[in-house]
Design brief:
781 residues, mainly alpha, five-stranded mixed β-sheet, two-stranded antiparallel ribbon, 27 helices, 7 strands, disordered C terminus
Length: 781
């Protein structure tokens, strides 16, 4: 049973706390007295108002002071003709009215601030105002939808402003809204993007984000990821000494371990959560203690007797502490989340300890009343998960069946597979109690199938990943082994050749000795015996030499076989390389399709044009890999075909095939891929600029691209159109447009000399030599 009311608690804490001035209020007042009546005084008035609004122990006089300061700032801004100051004064007043619980005035002032800031404020000012407006929407399905639409506008503003930290905060906030709306896929997308942004700027306070990721992964059944991010959240919270969040994280980790059927580990983190909750005296203490106690009850009987007794004692102590907190802070009892937490906790407690159904009845009635308030799917599923077991244990089968039917519909609609599995288990218990055994068996089988799929899906994925890694490592090891064997064989061959040369030299030496001996034979007859002995020795060495030759032939045969194996391995590697190029080409085509799909939904023509140009650049690189895997050479590109395909694709992309003609004169040459990629991108940018700017919508014209030899080592690339040319005020060498920046950057990378001029249109020429291109080339603007 998972405590879903913690989601609403997250929603209240999802936005970062407003920054407070380092200086005390008195210090800021003193500085304000010495500040002249200019825009800096407006800024200090609003800063002092913020201090009053966001004081931890804010009182009505403090909020009245904030409103007075915001009016002073508004009046001064009007006399200074400073509309931004007036806008921010409205926004500060809206925050003060919200703290005073006057939501009507707060929303009115917020909308006034938005109207002014849209004209006179910065992008961040507008984002702050829309953030304030989004806070007025209630925690409901319709409220979430409206808040998400406003949040999307906030994110768009922050992306344009370049404030990475604030953008990451808003992505986290929208991720919370998505998961409160049960849209877990979009929630995970936003939270992972926020994590990447935080890490890119070195932001380290990630305990809240880790906790959100762990919660959602566990909620969707990916318990391994839930545990991983939960442990990261524990470490980050301990490092930051964030004891408040640490209790909630420990409770969630306990629930995840409980779902993994590891009660001892679950109990360890539940006990930590109980200890932390009893040390705190915040509003959230009620929720934290109730969550922990509610999750503890189903597993306290699954451990050994000694641990079970200690657990029961801890639960009773926590119940007593929870009741004391509720009595000491009666205002919290009006809060929906607190009331739901207490009711679910006490209902489960009375069911588990002594079957005290009479004591549990008031809490049961309270939860039933909440169920009819249409609070949203998450709340409904949670209340079902509390009431259905109660009705099973107390024998109220008709009420249980009614809730089972409605709960199953919600779980199927929201894809809560874990809760759907639990619902079938409750059906099984109900049918078994009513002796409806065939139906009970069917529900139990569906429960087992869903539960097993949740526990095994992640494991299967990890096993598949490990198998891929193992196969890759095995292939790499085989390649290394073949290389080592080849080197060893070459060494043995060199040794054999050295031995053979020594034998041949010995033969020549023996031949010389024979000649000398023969000469001496004629002189001395007594040397005949010696000559016969020498002859016998020579014969023996000849036999040894013959045996050595046979051994060399066998070794040469083995070497030939090994060479054939190496050749086969080389063929396989070439095939793998072709497959890599094929897959890279497919991936780039997928990116092109995604960009095309994104562009179809854009209404902004500038954004659509940017998407289309990015799509063309990706297609230009995809052509490279297509050429490579289709060619016999894996590192060279036939430039004539490549250039023609780029121009044809761009003409079709801009729908100018009927109005703009092309002329190509490319020498038959194949260039290395490290040179062909930047050249293709340069041609893409040049032709794109001509199609965008050189001709009117229906104006006819032509574009020519030529690649020719200057000498044996140097090439000349010329791209020219007969359009209206560049405006006189544009300096091609200093223009910061993306297209010209790419052309200049790529030309510099390949060591080329770039010239852009006017010759009956725009003419771009590039002189380059392949020998000057680095082995690895990257694209830089």
């Amino acid at each position: 049973m998972k405590s879903f009311f913690v989601l609403a608690f997250w929603f209240l804490l999802s936005r970062p706390a407003p920054a407070q001035s380092v200086s005390p209020i008195d210090s800021l007042r003193l500085r304000l007295a010495n500040t002249p009546a200019d825009t800096s005084r407006v800024t200090q008035l609003l800063a002092l108002a913020h201090l009053y609004v966001f004081k931890l122990s804010e009182l009505t006089p403090d909020l009245d002071s904030a409103l007075l300061l915001s009016r002073q700032a508004y009046t001064l801004s009007g006399s200074l003709h400073y509309p931004r100051g007036q806008s921010l004064s409205y926004l500060t007043a809206a925050q003060a009215y919200k703290e005073k619980k006057d939501l009507t005035k707060s929303e009115q002032f917020t909308r006034r601030a938005i109207a002014l800031l849209t004209k006179h404020g910065s992008l961040e000012d507008q984002a702050d105002a829309y953030i304030e407006l989004a806070s007025f929407y209630k925690v409901s399905q319709q409220g979430f939808d409206q808040a998400i639409r406003l949040n999307a506008h906030v994110i768009s503003l922050l992306k344009r402003s370049g404030n990475t930290l604030k953008l990451a905060h808003e992505l986290v906030h929208r991720g919370d809204l998505y998961q409160l709306r049960s849209d877990n896929a979009h929630a995970l997308t936003d939270l992972r993007q926020a994590l990447a942004l935080y890490r890119s700027i070195g932001y380290t306070h990630l305990q809240h984000l880790y906790d959100r990721l762990g919660f959602i992964y566990s909620k969707t059944g990916d318990y391994e990821a839930g545990v991983r991010y939960g442990l990261l959240a524990v470490n980050a919270a301990e490092t930051a000494k964030d004891s408040f969040l640490l209790g909630d994280v420990c409770n969630r980790l306990g629930g995840t371990y409980r779902e993994l059927n590891q009660p001892e580990k679950a109990l360890l983190y539940y006990n930590r959560a109980l200890a932390i909750g009893q040390r705190q005296h915040y509003k959230s203490t009620i929720i934290l203690l109730a969550i922990t106690i509610t999750d503890l009850l189903p597993i306290y009987g699954k451990v050994n007797a000694k641990l079970r007794a200690a657990t029961a004692l801890n639960i009773r102590k926590a119940i007593a502490h929870l009741q004391n907190v509720v009595q000491e802070r009666p205002a919290d009892r009006s809060d929906l989340d607190c009331r739901m937490a207490v009711a679910s906790c006490m209902l489960g407690y009375y069911d588990e300890f002594g079957k005290q159904y009479a004591n549990a009845k008031p809490y049961c009635n309270e939860l039933e009343a909440m169920l009819h308030q249409n609070l949203g799917d998450d709340y409904a599923v949670f209340i079902h998960s509390v009431l259905i077991p109660h009705y099973v244990n107390s024998g109220q089968y008709e009420k249980e069946e009614r809730l089972l039917v409605s709960n199953e519909k919600i779980c199927q609609k929201t894809a809560y597979l874990k809760q759907l599995a639990a619902n079938h288990l409750w059906w099984f218990k109900l049918d078994s109690a009513r002796a409806m055994y065939p139906a009970a068996i069917g529900h139990f089988q569906r429960y087992k199938a869903l539960n097993d799929s949740l526990l095994s899906a992640t494991t299967h994925q990890k096993v598949a990943q490990l198998e891929v890694q193992y196969q890759t490592q095995q292939k790499e090891q085989n390649i290394r082994l073949l290389t080592q064997q080849s080197e060893l064989q070459q060494s043995e061959l060199r040794q054999a050749q050295t031995t053979r040369n020594g034998i041949v030299a010995g033969i020549f030496l023996l031949t010389g000795l024979l000649a000398v001996n023969y000469n001496r034979y004629r002189i001395k007859q007594r040397s005949n015996l010696l000559l016969k002995a020498k002859q016998l020795e020579i014969n023996q060495k000849n036999q040894s030499l013959a045996q050595s030759n046979q051994l060399l032939e066998v070794q040469q045969l083995e070497i030939n076989q090994k060479n054939e194996s190496l050749q086969q391995a080389l063929i396989e590697k070439e095939w793998m390389l072709r497959e890599i190029h094929h897959r890279v080409k497919n991936n780039l085509q997928v990116i092109t399709s995604l960009l095309h799909s994104q562009g179809m939904y854009l209404k902004d023509e500038v954004a659509s044009a940017a998407i289309r140009e990015s799509q063309n650049r990706v297609h230009t690189m995809a052509l490279i890999h297509q050429k490579l895997y289709q060619s016999d050479r894996l590192a060279a590109i036939p430039m004539s075909e490549y250039v023609t395909e780029i121009i044809d694709y761009l003409l079709e992309s801009f729908d100018r095939t009927d109005t703009v003609s092309k002329q190509t004169d490319v020498v038959a040459v194949e260039l290395d891929v490290t040179l062909a990629v930047p050249l293709g991108l340069i041609i893409n940018e040049a032709v794109t600029n001509s199609l965008k700017h050189a001709f009117g919508p229906n104006e006819r014209g032509s574009i020519s691209v030529s690649l020719s030899h200057i000498d044996s080592r140097t090439y000349l690339l010329v791209m020219q159109d007969d359009g209206k040319g560049m405006p006189a005020i544009v300096n091609p060498a200093q223009s910061r447009s993306l297209g010209l920046s790419l052309i200049r950057g790529l030309s510099k990378q390949i060591g080329g000399t770039l010239h852009i001029g006017q010759d009956g249109g725009t003419r771009i020429s590039l002189t380059f030599a392949p020998e000057t291109v680095p082995h690895e080339t990257t694209v830089e603007a």
